[in-house]
Amino acid sequence: MTADSHAVALAVAAAHAASEKLAEDIVAIDVSNHLVLTDVFLLCSAANDRAVGAVVDGIEEALAKLGAKPLRREGESEGRWVLLDYNEIVVHVQQTEERVHYALERLWRDCPLIDLPEEVNRPRTAAQ
């Protein structure tokens, strides 16, 4: 079993939104074979608590346009790691240090990655 097409579409839309808000190292992991509760984990990093908040807001706005509303939103008060649970996908927006420390990619390394559009993780230039 792999993540369904709707979950992948939500993950790609969330990845684009995160990228627009300058999130970095955006990764989508297909966890559908290991978890019953969700199909995709989307992970991304932001520089600080304000950046985490901006990324979260951008993702929520983009997914709301697709009719998706988070069932849960956790960690917002600290701004270090915010989790958005959309049932089919779970988005983790972490400050870079939290991302390195908790290393979710390592925990889920036996799960396949979902190909994201190249522009999502394109290096940024000073003009961008």
Summarize the structure in words:
The protein is of the alpha+beta class. Helix content is 34%, strand content 24%. The protein contains 4 helices and 6 strands, in the order αββαβββααβ. It has a 6-stranded mixed beta sheet with strand order 3-4-5-2-1-6. α1 (5-20) crosses α2. The protein is globular and about 35 Å long.
The strand order across the widest sheet is: 3-4-5-2-1-6
Radius of gyration, in angstroms, nearest whole number: 13 Å
Computed structural class: alpha+beta
- Give the number of helices: 4
Give helix and strand order, one letter per element, not per position: HEEHEEEHHE
C-alpha termini separation: 39 Å
Short recap of the structure:
This protein has 128 residues and is α+β, with helices and mostly antiparallel strands. It has helices at 5-20, 49-65, 96-102, 104-107, and strands at residues 24-30, 40-46, 72-74, 81-85, 89-95, 113-114.
Features:
4 helices; six-stranded mixed sheet; 128 residues; alpha+beta
Secondary structure layout plus pairing:
Elements: H1 5-20, E1 24-30, E2 40-46, H2 49-65, E3 72-74, E4 81-85, E5 89-95, H3 96-102, H4 104-107, E6 113-114
Parallel strand pairs: 2-5
Antiparallel strand pairs: 1-2, 1-6, 3-4, 4-5
